[in-house]
Amino acid sequence: MLILGIETSCDETAAAIVEDGRRVLSNVVASQIEEHKIYGGVVPEIASRRHSEAISAVTEEALRQAGASLSNLSAIAVTCAPGLIGALLVGVNFAKGLALSTRLPLVPVHHLRGHIAANYLSHPKLEPPFLCLVVSGGHSHIVQVEGYTQLRVLARTRDDAAGEAFDKAARAMGIPYPGGVELDKIAETGNPDAYQLPRPRVEGAPLDFSFSGLKTAALNILNHAAQKGETVSVPDLCASYRKAVVGCLTDSFRNAAVESRSRKLAAAGGVSANRLLRRELESLSQNLEARLYLPELSLCGDNAAMIAAQGFYELQSGSRATMNLNASPQKEISDNNWE
Questions:
Q1: Can you tell me the distance from the alpha carbon of 209 to that of 213, in angstroms, rounded to the nearest whole number?
Q2: Distance between CA atoms of 82 and 14, rounded to whole angstroms?
Q3: Which of 179, 196, 198, 209 can pair with 167 through a Cys bridge, CB separation 3.0 to 4.6 Å?
Q4: 3 state SS of 108
């Protein structure tokens, strides 16, 4: 069964063909990073316009690379939520038009479910249930994956997401966009114990995350140094900051794994490519005698193969959308209602 996946939730225009939810036949991504780098972050209106310009060609290229035609497809899966509303609408409307013209089933996919499904592509034998740390630029969750379309949120961030915290701190340090990726690289050369940073906790919700105070602490270090005319070691601050953010993530994930007695652990989302996080998760899984599943680095960021993979399981569960399908900037990962 061949599924065409379409992803336009932020600044990547992507299309892919995946077979039976596990085998990638093509995965085409048109990135907008260089353009948004001028502004130090994603400009929603520009992102939407670039999606409109690229989506047809990207989809055609995905079909060409897979050696497939529209007549070979079983369904069209598209990211409908969450994300930038203008960007999402480009993908949703394109997919609706394609489904209408080909009479193929239209399958709505939650973006974060797609990130989790990247693990099915990297680990073809992985099956639910398992515990997953979902960390990206806009989201930080601990999710109990009870089934391919049955997910339960155990914890979430109360303010900034981990990726957002990395990006904002990087910008304050003068690191160019995309900040989180560059901060991770620079941190490899720094001393992670050079600066003492807090690990905030949420009172009454010990598994939840909070990164706002940690970000503020890093900004205070930079501001105080500037006021005194002192120099801050950017590599050392990057390393110390990364250690604190990753520590918050892994501490809560460890506690969730112990409480849920999970023996299969996974991570997903753009931040799952972070070098230190991957190392710490490997260590955590060994200590808990659990099996760890991490997506290939090429599948950590936004892509359409993960959407097609999850789309296969959504289709298997009976999920179909009508031409009334709309995009949503926010939607719970556990919500199966799209109408």
A1: 11
A2: 16
A3: 179
A4: strand
Sign of CA dihedral 229, 235, 238, 240: negative
DSSP secondary structure letter of residue 293:
E
Assigned token pair, 204: 């009454």
Global pTM value:
0.96
Interatomic CA distance for residues 58 and 80, integer angstroms: 18
Reported residue count of the chain is 339
CA 76: distance to chain centroid? 21
3 — phi, psi (to 5°)?
A: -115, 130
pLDDT in tens, the chain (339 residues): 999 999 999 999 999 999 999 999 999 999 998 899 888 889 999 999 999 999 999 999 999 999 999 999 999 999 999 999 999 999 999 999 999 999 999 999 999 999 999 999 999 999 999 999 999 988 999 999 999 999 999 999 999 999 999 999 999 999 998 899 999 999 999 999 999 999 988 988 999 999 999 999 999 999 999 999 999 999 999 999 999 999 999 999 999 999 999 999 999 999 999 999 999 999 999 999 999 999 999 999 999 999 999 999 999 999 999 999 999 999 999 999 887
CA dihedral sign of residues 153, 109, 138, 302: positive
- Tokens read off for 238: 């990057």
